[in-house]
Amino acid sequence: MDKKALQTYAVWAKDNLENQIEVQLKALGINSKNDIKTARRVGDRTIIDGDPNSYPGDLKDKRDQIINIIKQEGYKQVIEEFAYTWFNRIVALRFMEVHDFLPHGFRVLSSRTGGFEPEIMKNLNFVKDDLKLDMSLLSPLMEQGKIDEAYRYVLFRQCNALSGILPMLFSLDQSYLELLLPNALLKGETFITKLLEIDESNFLNDVEVIGWLYQFYISQKKDEVFASKKTITKDTLPAVTQLFTPDWIVRYMAENSVGRIWLESHPDSSLRASMKYYVDDAKQEEDVQKKLDEIKYKAVNPEEIKIVEPCCGSGHILVYVFDLLYKMYEEKGYQTRDIPTLILKNNLFGLDVDRRAAQLASFALIMKARSANSRFFNSNYYVLPQVYEIWDSRILIHTDYLNQIKETKLLGEQQIKDIEWLAEKFRYGKTIGSLLKVEKKDFKSISQSIDTLKDKAVLNVFNTNFLNDGIDCLRHLLKQAEIMANKYDVMITNPPYIGTSTMELEVKKYAADNYLDSKSDMFAMFMEVPLVKKNGFRAMINMHSWMFLSSYEKLRKKIIMNEMIVNMIHLGAHAFEMIGGEVVQTTSFVLRNSPIATNGVYFRLVDEKDKEAAFLAGGV
Q1: C-alpha–C-alpha distance, residues 391 and 474, integer Å
Q2: pLDDT tens readout for residues 496-510
């Protein structure tokens, strides 16, 4: 993988897209949050003050949507959001066309026979039904040689057509995005032509390329946030904490947790031969070994193994665990076409505060499933990954939801209290993320209450926002609450490395109230997140400071008293391929949620340049 080419493109594309989108906004008379020209509909056309041109009538509705988002989120923030949305879409399309995953079979960005005109533009008659193309609109553009304008229309219809299988990237609710595509797409230096300059072999290797592109895309913002020395907020946290985990460390964590469950349950499994990062158990005293044997997993069916990645990023860890699970299902004789569906339905759960990352993680898992089953996009196989962006309840609270619910007179006192609990639990969900400790509730009852409100409440001018945005928010909050309240066989993650002293007051207070022994840094707090079942595994890579600093003494004692260290790799510096010369001192380990005092296996690689090779050679 040519990471330098990927980095160069991602950094360039971010700047280019943001500049182009601002140009498009200004062309629509949207110059800033407070400088917006008036637009009105005249007949079937839209007129914008100061603009001699007229536009199609539906432009006003789309423009109004953009303006509403800008008023809520800010001008600069919206430009950033729209830019990364188009970046994600184009990168996804490139991955899919190179792998021939697009349902109609034609390339959308490039042509296998060369030339600037994408393959799809030469085959419009074959895709017009699938993409719902209006040929009466498209044909004149083609005849007049307005290829870019025609292509913009086709590209957007292609995005809409993918909304069914990739709703996280190609939502039908964002029709206004069509207005923000740059005018020039096919010739010169555009975010499409520059992408095509990257050798397509980079996209053929693995879906991992998506994660690298994303990390490179946000690298500038990360540098800006650190340079400013401002408080880390929910808007800047994703950029400063994204760190792509090296492939071999992902495999080490997965094989020694998920893989260990399988080998405990199936000691004669042939899977052992393919898990080269697996570390055999340490030798124990006889009485200790007997206790260990009693708690080991036994006769596990692959459908029963539950894995959560609470800081899933762009899905790198989830993708490798998918591969590992696939081999387990195969070994048990499952039909190969059913396996991807079963994995996404039963085994994998992901959470992240970053919308972009959660979208890409879902995309990565869907691409994995499609690569394993060519019919995965068919309705009898397709299932959405259980990967969720963590929301907070701001939207809900702004709708005055409690009064709106009471006025419907549809719910009892306890039902209203349960919904209030849900809203309050996630008031700062976007800031605290999956560190939130969520107790089990009667989630089925809460779901029924939400359905009652949606189905039976009478819409009026006062409750429109609640019955639309508020209800959607409640459903999303409920789903993430269920995931956070569950216990898992394995929690596996590379958590954020960020001191809570640099963060917002809500995070500091929550840390002090709920993570007294690990409150200094988010990475340490994730060592205490109560997501792991009794006798289950916690596999992590994080900063090594928790092993030495006096501020973590109580945390260390708690781990020794309540958990067992199965194995650990002390990596030290330079375990990561860092951007901008950063250095972090890290350690990776697998803990078992059991208080049995056991021997562990330890590798000290702090002085090794090639840490992977040293590990495979037996460590130090």
Answers
A1: 10
A2: 888 888 778 888 999
* Residue 94 token pair: 């490139």
Task: Give phi and psi for 589, each to the nearest 5.
Answer: -155, 165
The answer to whether 539 touches 256, Cβ cutoff 8 Å, is yes
Tens digit of each residue's pLDDT (9 = 90 or more) over 559-601:
999 999 999 999 998 887 654 445 688 999 999 999 999 999 9
Query: 3-state DSSP call for residue 336?
Result: coil
Strand-pair category, 532-543 with 586-592:
antiparallel
> φ, ψ for residue 115 (rounded to 5)?
90, 160
The whole-angstrom separation of Cα 475 and Cα 398 is: 16
Contact between 390 and 430 (Cβ < 8 Å)? yes
How many C-beta atoms lie closer than 10 Å to residue 383's C-beta? 16
Q: List the structure tokens of 152.
A: 């913009």
- Give 438-482 as a DSSP string: -----HHHHHHHHHHHHHHPPP-TTTHHIIIIIHHHHHHHHHHHH
Q: Are 485 and 522 in contact (CB under 8 A)?
A: no
Q: Over 60: is that where the pLDDT of 239 sits?
A: no
Q: Which residues contact 52 (CB under 8 A, 6 or more apart)?
A: none
Number of residues written out for the chain = 620
Which pLDDT tens digit goes with each residue over 526-551? 999 999 999 999 999 999 999 999 99
In angstroms, the Cα distances linking 460 to 151, 463, 473, 556 are 41, 6, 19, 57
How many angstroms separate the CA atoms of 478 and 480, rounded? 6
Structure tokens at 488: 């898992």
3-state secondary structure of 199: coil
Contact assessment for residue 209 and residue 6, using Cβ atoms and an 8 Å cutoff: yes
Say if residues 338 and 374 touch (Cβ distance below 8 Å). no
Determine whether 42 is exposed, middle or buried from the number of CB atoms within 10 Å of its CB (0-12, 13-18, 19+): exposed
The Cα–Cα gap between 30 and 27 comes to 7
Distance CA 133, CA 128 (A): 5
E-strand stretches of 62-209: none
Please report where in the chains the tokens 């830019």 appear, as a residue.
83
How many angstroms separate the CA atoms of 75 and 31, rounded?
9
Report the distance separating Cα 317 and Cα 493, nearest Å.
7
Largest Cα–Cα distance of the chain, in whole Å? 88
Q: Considering only CA atoms, which of 386, 317, 380, 379 is closest in space to residue 347?
A: 386
Phi first, then psi: what are they for 540, rounded to 5°?
A: -145, 160
392, HSE (Cβ side, Cα atoms, 13 Å): 15
Q: By CB neighbour count within 10 A (0-12 exposed, 13-18 middle, 19+ buried), where does 533 fall?
A: middle
Whether residue 503 contacts residue 231, with contact meaning beta carbons closer than 8 Å, is answered with yes
Of 586, 578, 516, the residue nearest 548 (C-alpha): 586
Residue 20 has pLDDT above 80, yes or no: yes
Q: Order across the sheet with 45-48: list the strands.
A: 39-42, 45-48, 54-56
